[in-house]
Design brief:
This protein is of the alpha+beta class. The protein contains 20 helices and 19 strands. Strands 12, 13, 14, 15, 16, 17, 18 and 19 form an eight-stranded mixed β-sheet that branches.
């Protein structure tokens, strides 16, 4: 469907794009008011810009909206992709175009606040006012939250908003030993404020040089010498809490002094990018960005990286990332910007791979909150997309299987998985019509041909959806039979086979270049196995139903007075042959299309009378 109300404008833009040179540069899309709405860079301007004004079917909704508003475009030629990147950054920063990815910092600066009240409390605040004491500002909300949580646990401070002047029942934090529960009325205000002052001192000075633990040890020994055993026990607990916090931090320590870890999860046109930063060997920040209107991971990172690092001064020497496209221009840009060499890495083994996996799991989990799917479902779709080399996680998957008995009752089943779950409303059954006998390749070709004929008609709600991935039960033979069908209909959808071993268990995924082993990818293997089992169950279930009907019709039509129509009517009424056998003559006579003599013939046939 045309994205333009004015076909003349589209023709004009296409013609202009086709005159562009095949050289690096920056293109600038403008609307009817000459306002800049999108800025992009390209290694070859002509190839990139002509894509916008070609078939709109492959564009995301966001790109379609952008293109529909384009009235004209300008371009600037550059000597290299690197120069194009620098110019693109500068122009985006100046113009803030509507359709570019603009990563806005929704956190701002964050403060640790000590409230101005009788029972002072440690809290987190986005703003400062005249009341209370503030520590900060901090650029990372994650750092503030972690610091306040640690201080509360170590010094057993409350995280609630209760009034402590009137005794009340303590909450769970007291019972698990992370709060002294001043709400009980068993701790004096002076003791409470002493703990709070110690927590503030810990936040300001203690964690960096270890003085807090040494000072607490001295105070603990002093209290023990004075036989103040309760005070000594409390100090001992604080020391243990600090040590536990430090042990917890070691779990997520990097082996490299300064690095960022970046991973993304994509489903449909939605993406979640997680950035985990390590500075001085410690996890220093975690950020998640939700981005809509994404077509694939490569184009996502092309925009995301420049927007994320555009205003940053603290750029690490290493960036771990979950893809392996060409980052040469980005490395050069960040190296010049930071004054030191910056390298992008995609580790395959060891601790660095574990950090990347952790980052990816966080991205999937956070994205799941935006898409009504679990983190596990997001992860398996993302894993499958990487395994198959798809541009993004497939939201809508169709799987097909053929079932027959020596060529008789030849049928097919189509099952659909939407966002990782069976979507049974879209399941469909097919009876093979174009030939008789057994030929799984011809059968699969017929089924896909009929499926996309329905897509072209646009009359069926579910057939009108174009899948993101097609899986066929079988190998290269089935794929070779279906590929010409897709080409004939102009359908550009990734096509793969599901291959079983000699014991009818999923073994691999068939692709054009050969089989893809999936058993080592546990989540993807389990998911694909489930799809293959489900489509087999659905297809064979339909085949059994048709075979049973055929057998029943054959048996019933041998009874005097029972033709095909009466046999079919009996089966529709009683559902199973067993029910017909067990029916009385009166019940048979009461069935639609039956009379007493025919009913008696059926009854006598099954009861040997």
């Amino acid at each position: 469907m045309n994205m333009y109300a004015d076909p003349k404008k589209l023709t004009e833009l296409k013609a202009k794009a086709n005159r562009l040179p095949l050289t690096p540069g920056v293109y600038i899309m403008k609307d009817r008011k000459e306002k800049i709405i999108y800025i992009g860079k390209a290694k070859a301007l002509k190839n990139r810009v002509t894509q916008y004004f070609g078939s709109g079917n492959q564009h995301t909704e966001k790109v379609k909206r952008m293109v529909s508003n384009v009235d004209n475009f300008d371009y600037i030629l550059c000597d290299s992709e690197f120069e194009a990147l620098i110019l693109e950054n500068s122009l985006i920063k100046q113009n803030q175009p509507k359709y570019n990815i603009l990563l806005k910092d929704d956190k701002g600066y964050t403060y640790i606040k000590i409230t101005d009240e009788k029972w002072k409390k440690l809290t987190i605040s986005k703003f400062t006012d005249k009341k209370g004491e503030y520590i900060g500002p901090y650029s990372s909300a994650y750092v503030v939250k972690e610091t306040v949580d640690e201080a509360r646990k170590i010094f057993r401070l409350p995280d609630c908003n209760r009034s402590f002047d009137t005794p009340s029942k303590p909450c769970l934090n007291y019972h698990i030993g992370i709060c002294d529960a001043p709400c009980r009325g068993k701790i004096t205000l002076a003791e409470y404020l002493e703990s709070l002052d110690a927590a503030v001192d810990f936040i300001k000075h203690g964690e960096a040089d270890g003085d807090t633990v040494e000072k607490l040890n001295e105070k603990m020994l002093e209290a023990a010498e004075k036989l103040e055993f309760e005070k000594a026990a409390k100090l001992r607990d604080r020391i243990n809490a600090i040590n536990k916090i430090h042990e917890k931090q070691k779990v997520v320590r990097a082996s490299y002094k300064s690095e960022d870890v970046i991973a993304s999860a994509l489903i449909g046109e939605k993406a979640g990018v997680e950035v985990i930063s390590f500075r001085n060997y410690r996890l220093s920040d975690k950020q998640f960005f939700y981005i809509d209107g994404v077509s694939d991971r490569e184009s996502l990172y092309s925009e995301f990286l420049q927007q994320y690092y555009l205003e940053k001064n603290d750029i690490p020497q290493r960036i771990l990332i979950d893809t392996e496209p060409d980052y040469e221009a980005a490395e050069r840009w960040l190296s010049e910007k930071s004054g030191h060499k910056v390298t992008f890495l995609n580790p395959k083994l060891g601790e660095q791979k574990s950090l990347l996996d952790m980052c990816l799991a966080n991205a999937a989990e956070n994205l799941s909150e935006k898409t009504d799917r679990t983190g596990r479902e997001m992860s398996v779709l993302d894993e499958l997309s990487r395994l198959l080399g798809l541009p993004s996680a497939p939201r809508y998957i169709e799987a097909y299987d053929i079932s027959n008995t020596a060529g008789s009752e030849n049928v097919a089943g189509m099952v659909v998985y939407k966002d990782g779950r069976p979507f049974k409303a879209a399941y469909r059954r097919f009876k093979i019509k174009s030939f008789s006998g057994q030929d799984d390749f011809r059968s699969m070709a017929e089924v896909l041909d009929r499926r996309f004929e329905e897509y072209e008609k646009g009359e069926d709600e579910y057939f009108s959806v174009l899948p993101d991935l097609i899986l066929l039960d079988g190998g290269e033979g089935q794929m070779s039979a279906v590929e010409p069908v897709l080409e004939r209909h102009g359908i550009d959808v990734p096509l793969f086979g599901m291959v079983k071993d000699s014991k009818h268990r999923t073994r691999a995924i068939a692709a054009k270049g050969g089989d893809i082993a999936i058993k080592s990818n546990r989540a993807a293997f389990t998911f694909v196995t489930g799809i293959q089992d489900e489509v087999h169950r659905f297809a064979i279930g339909y085949h059994k139903t048709r075979r049973t009907k055929a057998m029943l019709n054959t048996e019933l039509t041998g009874i005097p007075g029972i033709g095909k129509n009466r046999a079919a009517a009996l089966f529709r009424h009683f559902k199973t042959i067993k029910a017909i056998k067990n029916a009385t003559a009166e019940e048979l006579a009461a069935a639609p299309g039956m009379n007493s003599s025919s009913a008696l013939n059926v009854y006598n046939y099954f009861h040997n009378e």
